[in-house]
Amino acid sequence: MDARLEYATDPTAGKTLKHVMGLGKTLKGSPLPDATQELVALRVSQINGCAVCLDMHTKEAAAAGETAVRLNLVAAWREATVFTAAERAALELAEEGTRVGDAAGGVSDEVWNRAAEHYEKEQLTALVILISFMNMVNRLNIITQQPAGDYKAGQFPH
């Protein structure tokens, strides 16, 4: 499969993606735990069907020491016992924040309050921005049919 747009050679994409990548680096430096960031990135990408983001975040998480069991169970986190209460709250917020069209009311107060119980204000802010960020980059990659499978962990410095 060939990408519809080549980000590296398109001037507008190059200028824009420099800022997008900067946002990703800012999030990596936030107080939201790295493991939570990767789990949320995976779950949002699973929901949206973004293969290139699944490729990247699975490999980055594994390189950072995440277990295969947890990576494989992200899609079924509700039935899995391997996630902390905080991670479960983050995954639930990620799902409702991604499926806004399916949840007529958007993110429910119950889901928001569960996340707020586990994350301090700066972490919660980073979590909300991460969910929004992943939805944006998923859509960029899906619309332009960016191919997946060749990503190498560490390819994009944090």
UniProtKB/TrEMBL annotation:
Residue ranges constituting the Carboxymuconolactone decarboxylase-like domain according to the UniProt record: 19-96
Signal peptide (residue range): none
Single GO molecular function: peroxiredoxin activity
Alphabetized InterPro entries for the sequence: AhpD-like, AhpD_core, CMD-like
Pfam families according to UniProt: CMD
The protein's name in its UniProt record: Carboxymuconolactone decarboxylase family protein
Organism of derivation: Streptomyces paludis
